[in-house]
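Posting this for the archive.
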Amino acid sequence: MVEALQPPEYVFNQATIRERWGLEPFLEGCAARGLARASLWGDEIDKVGLAEARRMLARTGISTFGFNRAGPLLAAGAAGRAAYLDRARRTVDMAAELAADHVLVFSGGLADGSRDLAGARAQTEDAIGQLLDHARSVGTTLALEPLHPMVAGDRAVIVSLSHANAICERLGEGIGIVADAYHIWWDERLAAELAYAGAAGRILGFHVSDWLVPTRHVLRDRGMMGDGIIDLAGMWRQVRAAGYTGPIEVEIFSDRWWAEDPDLVLDTALQRCRGIFSGGSAIS
């Protein structure tokens, strides 16, 4: 028996167009395209205030999917780490106020002058455990998003699905992972770790962009879906096979696309996604 799958739901992360559009036009752009949810950034909420952000969400009928981001968590001394953790707790509170599905945790990179990667990872896991206690108390789910190993020095010390899964396993309920194709496409353990995360019900999101060859900047040169070398359709099949039933989230950090008309960017992204992810949606 063949059961047709529903077409994927699509979500935009505001980072895709935030250089040109603030929160209100972004939400209006999502609503105009028939989307129901969007992923937001705390610094963009700060620009308009929490109460106004709630009004914008209500007015456009958009609800919050992912919320970026709780962190950084790493600092050179205990006082700095405590200050970062307090700020991360406030971000979790904001995500809870906006009824976000999950809030992403951002470790940050090594403290200035440090070469102690193992120590940084231990400090990060300790901070995540403390942040998780707070997230549970306000009913918010934390999401670990392993980033590409090339940014381990300055942006993230969690750089593999294996590590993210291990942290989730140790910490228990209330924490999961976001699988970002740009950051994990290279991993020889990709299929196994996605399956492992899915079996535990901990895949919270699936982010898409593409890896360009050559890549001019590891942070700000992500490609539009279909312009690079990632097997996005294949990864989507793996994520779905692992039990993920949530949306596909477009998150493109790109100087090239930030310079374009945001309407063009959103329309192009939806067209590409529908061509890549909507074909052959059936299971037997």
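The domain at 21-29+36-207+227-245 is CATH 3.20.20.150 (TIM Barrel). Strands lie at 3-4, 10-13, 37-41, 63-70, 102-105, 142-144, 175-180, 203-208, 248-250, 282-283.
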